[in-house]
Amino acid sequence: MSEAYIEDFLQKVESGLQEAQQHMLEEKALHNNSVVVSDGKGCVLEIPAKKILAQSHS
Length: 58
Fold this sequence. Notes:
Number of helices: 2
Strand order of the largest sheet: 1-2
Distance between the termini: 40 Å
Oligomer: single chain
Shape: elongated
Number of strands: 2
Protein name: Ribosome recycling factor
Radius of gyration: 15 Å
Number of domains: 1
């Protein structure tokens, strides 16, 4: 496989993951649900999906 093929494949996978995450957040927000995430320091947080969507559109 060529380097260009691998880069293209990885870009498509990342794009698909971002699309799936956006769809999941929209569904969770529609039903007023929260999402469990890590803060990157080992702590687990429960954040309303609407808040995450609002931050991503700012």
